[in-house]
Amino acid sequence: MITIYEPLYRDGQQLSEPAFLPLTIESNSLSAWREFKILVDFYRRGDHRQSTFSGIFSPKFRLKSLMAGSQFIEFVRCNRDATVCILNPYPATAYFSFNVWMHGEAFHPGLCDRAQALLDASGIGWKIADVPRHNASNLCYSNFWVGTPQFWDAYVGGVLEPIARFLEENPDDSAAIDVLESTTHYTAAPFLPFIIERLFTTFLSLNPQIQIASHQAPYEHILDYCQTDFERRIVSEMMPIVDAADLSGNFSPELVSIQRLLSGLYQSYVAEHFAHNPHPHTGNVMESPKKGAP
After folding, report:
1. Number of C-beta neighbours around residue 220 at 10 A
2. How far apart are CA 215 and CA 115, in angstroms?
3. What is the Cα–Cα distance from 20 to 26, expressed in whole angstroms?
4. Which residues contact 72 (CB under 8 A, 6 or more apart)?
5. What are the contacts of 28-33 at 24+ separation with CB within 8 A?
6. Rounded to an integer, what distance in angstroms lies between the CA atom of residue 145 and that of residue 25?
7. How far apart are alpha carbons 41 and 155 in whole angstroms?
8. Rounded to an integer, what distance in angstroms lies between the CA atom of residue 180 and that of residue 158?
9. Where does residue 233 rank: exposed (0-12), middle (13-18), buried (19+ CB within 10 A)?
């Protein structure tokens, strides 16, 4: 059985995807955690053991993925031998960022140091500076993934649950306080959900034995997933260079440096562009963090 749930937060909220099942969120007491709390609660209840593949997708799945939920479920059905099936609605990031942390640091300055402190405090022995390349084989934003019960045990049980436990038990620790400070985004948000979002791809890249089925539609139609003309230009110019590096497995320091530069330039462009133009996924303009905000 393949089961994808859609969180319902408000009274009267309807499913946006008929192929998904409703997941009623009774308490929104830790709303700053975003999907992180939903994933951990789902795991702690043992709900991940009810299906061969389970996932929790936001109501914006179709808007971001450009496909119906039933199409993704069919993709999973055709890849039953996989341990986890993913879809990355932001394929362009593979061309202007070496990995999710380069991208994250450009868009949320200070994110890497905060993430490393959180990992250290939670007993997760990863070093963000050593995380390898992320590309079409393992890159996944927006938590668009479904996994087997064993995958949930390894990733959510082994990584997310210890982090949640640390935050619950040590709210006054500097590592906990720092990840709940606000960062620039289209709606007010702390660093935490952007850190958690990047842990998934990091986990995949540090565990190459995992069998991943990555939906390639976003890469095959990549310009349709770009949100600005500048992004399309970056992808068109960088695609042959980056694809060749991925194929050879050799990313030169010069190429990594170029990607770091492009990540910063594109963040600056995005901040200016979406300060005046509503983002297509949110309908909102960019919000800067308020001084002193949690």
Report:
1. 10
2. 28
3. 18
4. 4, 61, 65, 85, 87, 144, 215
5. 32/180, 32/189, 32/190, 32/192, 32/193, 32/294, 33/192, 33/193, 33/196
6. 20
7. 14
8. 22
9. exposed
In the block, tokens 């890849």 appear at 79
Q: Contact, 184 vs 288, CB < 8 A?
A: yes
Mean pLDDT by 10 residues, the chain (294 residues): 92 90 80 84 96 96 96 98 98 97 95 98 97 98 97 98 97 96 74 96 98 98 95 96 96 96 92 74 61 36
Which strand (E) or helix (H) includes residue 85? strand 84-86
Element (H, E) at 163: helix 161-169
The count of residues in the chain is: 294
Residue whose C-alpha is closest to residue 4's, from 60, 103, 70, 65: 70
**From CA 133, how far away is CA 63, in angstroms rounded?**
27
CB of 24 closer than 8 Å to CB of 39:
no
Gap between the Cα atoms of 30 and 242, Å rounded: 39
